[in-house]
């Protein structure tokens, strides 16, 4: 099942930048900035949509434009939407937004927007199950009928013990079946017969956001320095945002192409790709038509031996020779 994650992050900018507001960056309380919304094809690591918004814009406002943009980019027909899952944090978990996504035929796996409603729904849980992965976390089925939603959904209440001893509560909303959620949680198929395993699988699938869209934001800020290139005009910054997305996708594709030849790259993110792979030294040789004819990698670089056959497989059809320093 194709999985699309959507989220937003603050992008700091100068005081005179258009549409910037103070306090829009969570990690820098008084810094002025704008917001960037992203739709990520999580199973591939590709950015499907990247959009710039004003500093006051939150996911409650940006969700629908991002979904529509992704729908257009991927040319999703009705049959394809029925097999596509949107995973969203609480900012896009209002009843209206969830019903809007459901009306377009998608699956949804998200967190309820309303904290007070989550507290009320959690009171209907008849049995709490301890999470073996996270201490002081429990999950339970919400037993109140989900009549507010246009399609059948399952709801799971999750509570975590806070430092003050009280419970922090959230509610997950999902259209996924037990078989689908077990598969997405990467658990053995036979666990679909275990009610506790199925319950916790709904929680774990939502937890995977941390290794998906949230990780890509962190990787791009560290590896690509996306927060360092700011433009005063909003349209200019939107262009920079698109170039950042292109750089991200190019690195993801390069990682996919080269990984069979350098297996240790499997767990490398954007920062390691930029720092180690793209800094391998060498020479580029041009022919009389100013076209690239040869790439010579520095044989002293520990990555060069693995990169050479990978680059040749990629560039061989263009008649570009890849060597380890030989002339």
Question: Can you walk me through this structure?
Answer:
- This protein has 327 residues and is α+β, with helices and mostly antiparallel strands.
- Among the domains are: 3-108 and 188-215, Nucleotidyltransferase, domain 5; 281-323.
- It has ten helices and 13 strands.
- It has helices at 59-74, 78-81, 95-103, 115-122, 178-184, 195-207, 213-223, 234-258, 270-277, 304-315; strands at residues 3-12, 21-22, 32-41, 46-53, 85-88, 107-111, 129-130, 137-141, 154-161, 167-174, 282-286, 292-297, 321-323.
- Strands 1, 2, 3, 4, 5, 6, 7, 8, 9 and 10 form a ten-stranded mixed beta sheet that branches. The protein has a three-stranded mixed beta sheet with strand order 11-12-13.
- The protein is globular and about 75 Å long.
- The mean pLDDT is 92.
